[in-house]
Design a protein that fits this description.
The complex is a heterodimer. Chain A has 17 helices and 9 strands. Chain A is elongated and about 100 Å long. In chain A, a hairpin with a 5-residue loop joins strand 8 and strand 9. In chain A, helix 7 runs antiparallel to helix 8 and helix 8 packs antiparallel against helix 9. The two termini of chain A are 26 Å apart. Chain A is of the alpha/beta class. By secondary structure, chain B is of the alpha/beta class. Chain B has 2 domains: 324 residues, no CATH class; 140 residues, Toll/interleukin-1 receptor homology (TIR) domain (Rossmann fold, 3-Layer(aba) Sandwich), CATH 3.40.50.10140. In chain B, 62% of the residues lie in helices and 8% in strands. In chain B, strand 4, helix 16 and strand 5 form a beta-alpha-beta unit. Chain B is rod-shaped. The chains are: A alpha/beta, B alpha/beta. At the A-B interface, helix 1, strand 2, helix 2, helix 5 and helix 8 of A face helix 2, helix 15, strand 3, helix 18 and helix 19 of B.
């Protein structure tokens, strides 16, 4: 069976490349609203283990549809011969610079590819577009119209009646806003325009879902790795017994916090690479909430867990400890241990959330002294980092590849951690607590894998609740 | 897997963690998975084939160096053992002191000590946790020493050796037993070879010489010594009774350095062969208490080692990650090759913005311009000034309409400006440009042609810029590009 091939055609600058970029998840596709960017056909094969399941072909837009249609009409004999007339046109004009683009875009269509005809629903329908639709119709190939929305205006009502006449299916697809689920829905729709390709496209959909899970796994593994490294980071400086430690404290603390910032930056870069969004900038102005400095007062207030949840976490730990005392005295303390433990725990939780590590001097076995900073014992810190990472991940993983430049953050970092269920939050908190005790390398690795699994579940649950996910 | 393979695996997994991004690893391992047909391999074979591929890529052979070092250590243990054993026995039996060799000393040093070490080894192997660590402490010290020495002599691999050493500690939970049995094997090889050297030299010297064994003791009686030899000889007495001592042999071979008649007795008894009575007993002791246990331990440790290596690699987190990377389907949706870029065309763009004040205007409205004729007349007049002489519809499928418009352009008076109204949202594709060229040919080279961009909504600056940019490339000084909607004109 032949590989399903879809030629993306349409008027110049109507978003063909945007559609291809989003469908192929490829940032290398050039997109510009102010000039025709596609000069040659470019193939985007969807490969699974080097086996091609379908191909998208980006094409230059029609340059002279009016003149081409005039030629076709002049050479038309019968309706049944229309495809042959198109073939004749391509044959006779091969190498003619005037109809170079028409020949290039029609060649794969005449070789058996289906047509995805892209129109911009934000501009009015004109007769020029109908010339193109007629040419496509003359080829007799399976075809679907995609209504892309480049601008705010909406002329879909003008387009619909015309498109319905010329195409088997009409689908709205905003390449600049489409989610992963929209992408899958479009591929599902493609099955309808040519039934023999259904099996290959089903396989492709499964593979894309698998790939999405792989990306999710890799991204949360990066986040878990960052958290483990951050929480176990310790910086030291060895000094002689007589040395004055004061001048060394500030540089050591600076190096410590700089290292934490670098870890976060590296994690962000890694996540962008996983989703193949290296050129997608999350600029500070756009992502002010998530890109503020990690250690500014403001960030500590805006991200991480709320004071209530922090106090609740500390209280639960304290109450559990107090409860053990109650149990040890056979309940003779009338649960006083649990109550006092809870109050103390809540206080410690809140206080701990406000303090940052400082450089401290510790003795050394071999003489001299060591200045040390870390590990981070602030209970709020990992939640802040996690909230920011989840916010960044949401933006990067959600933006379609046609969306370029930078994107506005909605400041949902705090809600990203607040939305985590109690069960997951307790397990994650437990992992953070274990890391703060600086376990050995193998245990750290175990915790990292536990965190990865946990966060994967959290994100998968959150993604399943996204609008439209239930239809995929 | 060999020990070197295990070291190579851990070294590369750790290096991956330090030096490579997840995406780099995904890409590298996807290529390797395709090369080795990952789907058809079991876990162990998969990891091994991956390791071969990575080694071929980076050309580093740390594992091979480790394997060579281990082989060398085994060879040295075997060779050194034989040599040391032979040297000890040669030295001991070759001393011509004029006195018989004290069999109790000989047995104690070459058999008794080995029994003590053997018992310690077996105890250490059977003990749990902390006690084992105390007893195996020297082994750890030796490993540290080997690492230090290796890093001094294998300068090219110094960093790698340190890394491996660090990893060995890091993965002590995973590879602690492997390390134990490797060390055990090498020690048992040494002990086995030592016994072979001792026994071979002992037999050889007995053939070419006549070593005389006796015994002396202040506390032990003849009977007690005889009883002790009987107990020691229990394992072989039933099979080789010649290798046991009778009470007479024990009595006859007892001597004392204080005895004045000792030399005479010694010489006469040696002639009678009495002094050779200990020889079979000592040989049997060396074989039964020295050689055989070491042979068993060397075999067991080799078997355990190979059994553990067959079960390698352990499926710890990093190996599981690697396996997942190799087994995951390789999905790629990206385009083939790179795109060509379009050349910039901004020549003569500056002339296109000059204002137009027309006396008379001939309007040509492209087919997508839906405004009716009175509206068009009003807009054009307000934008360019002057009277609108006529409005032609062009750009439709009917070529005749275009021809009529071109004829009108040709016949228009010299002071008539031609206004071509086009859709602002459309880019200037070939159909427009071709018509524009025909229009220029019909209207003459110096007639002012104004391209007026029409849009139901305000014309955007980017739309005007696009048209100016494209038409600027024509190099026509009598061409202007303006917005038809005056309020939106840039």
């Amino acid at each position: 069976m032949s590989v399903p091939r879809f030629v993306v055609v349409g008027h110049v600058n109507r978003g063909k490349s945007s559609v291809v970029s989003t469908l192929a998840a490829d940032e290398s596709v050039r997109i510009a609203s102010d000039a025709p960017t596609t000069l040659e056909c470019r193939t985007f094969p969807m490969r699974v283990n080097d086996r091609v399941l379908y191909e998208l072909i980006d094409t230059p837009g029609f340059e002279r549809p009016r003149q081409m249609l005039q030629w076709l009409r002049e050479h038309e004999t019968t309706t049944g011969q229309r495809r042959h007339v198109v073939e004749q046109f391509v044959r006779e004009h091969a190498g003619d610079p005037m109809f170079d683009k028409e020949c290039k875009l029609l060649k794969p269509v005449l070789e058996g590819a289906a047509v995805l005809f892209v129109v911009d629903g934000s501009v009015p329908f004109t007769e020029q577009h109908e010339y193109e639709m007629q040419i496509i119709q003359w080829t007799g190939q399976p075809r679907m119209a995609l209504i892309n929305m480049i601008h705010e205006e909406n002329y879909i009502d003008q387009w619909r009646p015309v498109l319905d006449q010329y195409f088997n299916l009409v689908h709205e697809f905003d390449a600049h806003e489409a989610s992963f689920h929209d992408r899958i829905r479009l591929i599902r729709a493609l099955r309808e325009i040519h039934k023999p390709w259904e099996a290959a496209l089903n396989e492709a959909i499964d593979a894309l879902m698998t790939e999405r899970q792989q990306h999710l796994h890799d991204a949360v593994a990066e986040i878990a790795s960052m958290l483990v490294r951050m929480l176990t980071l310790v910086k030291t400086k060895r000094l002689s017994a007589e040395a004055d430690v004061e001048p060394h404290k500030e540089p050591l603390a600076r190096a410590y916090f700089d290292e934490l910032r670098r870890m976060e930056a590296r994690c962000r870069d890694a996540i962008s690479t996983i989703y193949r969004r290296e050129q997608f900038q999350v600029k500070q102005s756009e992502l002010s909430a998530a890109q503020d400095d990690l250690f500014s007062q403001d960030v500590w207030l805006r991200f991480g867990l709320s004071r209530g949840k922090l106090a609740a976490g500390g209280a639960a730990t304290g109450a559990a400890t107090g409860g053990m005392i109650d149990a040890a005295v056979g309940g003779a303390s009338f649960l006083l241990g649990a109550v006092v433990g809870g109050i103390v725990g809540a206080g410690v939780g809140l206080l701990s959330a406000m303090s940052l590590p400082r450089a401290q001097v510790v003795g050394m076995r071999m003489g001299g002294k060591e200045l040390r900073i870390g590990p981070m014992r602030n209970v709020q810190f990992p939640w802040i980092v996690l909230g920011r990472a989840l916010e960044h991940h949401r933006i990067v993983s959600g933006a379609p590849h046609a969306k370029r430049g930078s994107v506005e953050a909605t400041g949902e970092a705090r809600s990203a951690v607040e939305q985590i269920s109690d069960e997951h939050r307790k397990a994650i908190n437990h992992a953070f607590a274990r890391l703060r005790k600086l376990p050995d390398a193998v245990t750290r690795e175990e915790i990292q894998f536990e965190l990865t699994d946990r966060l994967k579940t959290v994100l998968a649950e959150q993604e399943a609740m996204e609008p439209g996910a239930e239809h995929v | 897997m060999s020990i070197g393979d295990v070291v190579d695996l851990e070294y590369r997994l750790a290096r991956d963690q330090w030096d490579s991004s997840r995406q780099e690893l995904n890409e590298r391992d996807a290529a390797i998975a395709a090369e080795i047909d990952a789907g058809s391999l079991d876990d162990a074979a998969l990891v091994m084939r991956w390791l071969d591929a990575v080694r071929a890529q980076d050309g580093q052979a740390i594992g091979r160096t480790i394997d060579t070092t281990i082989e060398t250590a085994r060879g040295l243990a075997l060779g050194g053992g034989v040599l040391i054993g032979a040297s000890i026995v040669t030295a001991w039996l070759s001393i011509e002191s004029g006195k018989p060799i004290n069999a109790i000393h000989f047995w104690g040093a070459l058999v008794g000590l080995q029994i003590v070490f053997l018992l310690l080894t077996l105890t250490a192997l059977m003990l749990p946790g902390a006690a084992k660590r105390v007893l195996l402490g020297p082994m750890r010290a030796l490993a540290v020493a080997i690492t230090w020495i290796s890093s001094r002599f294998l300068r090219g691999h110094r960093e790698a050796i340190r890394a491996v050493s660090g990893m060995t500690e890091r993965y002590a939970k995973l590879y602690g037993r492997l390390r134990l049995w490797l060390f055990m094997q090498i020690v048992q090889f040494f002990a086995l070879a030592l016994n072979i050297g001792i026994i071979a030299t002992f037999i050889a010297l007995a053939i070419v010489s006549d070593p005389a064994f006796g015994w002396r003791s202040t506390l032990l009686s003849d009977e007690a010594t005889h009883r002790a030899t009987q107990i020691i000889a229990l394992p072989w007495a039933w099979l080789v009774p010649e290798a046991t001592l009778t009470l007479e042999d024990v009595e006859a071979t007892r001597y004392s350095s204080l005895d004045a008649t000792f030399i005479e007795q010694f010489r006469s008894r040696q002639a009678a062969g009495v002094w050779a009575a200990w020889w079979p007993f000592l040989l049997a002791s060396l074989i039964v208490y020295g050689l055989l246990p070491r042979l068993v331990l060397a075999t067991v440790s080799s078997w355990r080692l190979s059994h553990m290596l067959r079960a390698m690699p352990p499926m710890h987190g990093a190996v599981i990650e690697l396996r997942e990377r190799l087994r995951r389907p390789r999905i790629d949706t990206r385009g083939v090759g790179t795109e060509k870029t379009s050349p910039s065309s901004t020549a003569n763009e500056s002339r296109m913005v000059e204002p137009v004040h027309a006396e008379s205007v001939l309007v040509m409205a492209w087919s997508g311009v839906t405004a009716d004729e009175p509206t068009l007349r009003q807009w054009v007049a307000s934008r360019l000034g002057g009277n609108v002489a006529a409005v032609h519809r062009v750009g439709g499928i009917d070529v005749a309409a275009d021809r009529a418009a071109l004829t009108a352009a040709k016949q228009a008076s010299a002071n008539t400006t031609i206004a071509l109204v086009v859709e602002a949202w459309e880019p200037p594709v070939g159909d427009y440009l071709d018509f524009l060229q025909e229009l220029r040919a019909a209207a003459g080279p110096t007639r002012l042609i104004a391209i007026l961009l029409y849009s139901p909504s305000p014309v955007q600056a980017s739309q005007i810029a696009l048209w100016r940019s494209h038409l600027g490339a024509l190099g026509d000084p009598w061409l202007r590009v303006l917005s038809l909607n005056t309020e939106a004109a840039a």
